Amino acid sequence: MLDTLATISAEPDQLTRLYLTPEHKRAADLVAEWMRRAGMSVRMDAVAGIHGVLSNGANSPRRLIVGSHIDTVIDAGRYDGALGIVAAILAVEEIRARAITLPFTLEVVAFGDEEGIRFPKTLIGSSTVAGATDESVLDLTDAAGETVRNALLRFGCDPAAVASEAYRRDDVVGYLEVHIEQGPLLESLDEPLGAVTAIAAQSRHRVRITGEAGHAGTVPMALRHDALAGAAEFIAMTEELAYKGERDQLVITTGEVSVKPGAVNVIPGEARLSLDVRAASDAARATAVETIRRRSRQIGSRRGLVIGIETVHEKPVAVCAPKLRAAISNAVGGLTGRKPPELMSGAGHDGLAMAHLTDIGMIFVRCRAGISHNPLEHVTKGDLGCSVEALVREIVEVAKQERT
Ligand SMILES: [Zn+2]
Fold first, then answer.
1. Could you tell me the pTM of the whole model?
2. In sequence order, which residues have a C-beta less than 8 Å from that of residue 277 and are 6 or more positions away?
């Protein structure tokens, strides 16, 4: 199933499946077909999420949601997102095959947009179900100028129904997701599966450092206000800070730098940097950003530079619910004979949005060398099997909790 999904792409020689594209449609149709074959009734929501529902025969509206995302990055691997959808469908097959009765409806969701590549917004699918978005999302445009609204209409969705897709808190038991780890920890511990403690607090910033351009040969060192040299000191300062914040799982990254005027014989007058800050708690992240601001003022005044830091994106930590973590621990423990390692997710996931609505729980699956967002992404067949069995057992554990 994962290999088949991986062939549904905008490009013949790489996997690229962006939100509301023809390849998204083909993948959604295929997933819907798999859901039907697994015994679920299927509907598409207003933002192209595919929902497969396995009723327990009772009339209670209570439902346990299990899902992941169907979109990919550009030149992606075949497991990120797709694994969570395939594992959920196979878990439903197993639950039916074993005649397990559940005290709730089981709902599998393939969210349309998690990665946020086509439109300048991530998690459109899960935010809509969680009631954590508003209709302003419909006016966002892609690089070609097409709005989300138009793209939804062409996909066969009803953008006017976005607000009505929000689920009621009382109707939802929780949200579970199986996802590749996208990091090297499980592999280093020789463990197939892990229980996620939280999805990291995250913020993104734009940093602009203004100095003074000048001739590379004639301006003496003492009289320079070199924006790029200041940027180098700034980056080294944030790296040092992150090393010191290891206990808070603080990670800080500058992944983009641009320099003006950008010539071999000109002292840089301006540098623009990206800054990505993540930590295990909102407080640790906020403290780190405060420290960066304070120390950048010191760098600026010493070097005669103006350093401006603008926050463009902020997501609070989403803590996984203790009872769902316990369910995962029992489920995986019953499978491997060991308590699974607990780890933080440094990457964002649909659970970030779903945490606005309900308890979230996530199982991470070991992936080779921690590589993701890359065609080299790899999970062994054995670990894939483990993840499905763990999900079945986790659903059974949640059913036990629901009954008591
Ligand atoms: Zn993902």
1. 0.88
2. 202, 203, 204, 205, 250, 251, 252, 285, 288, 289, 292
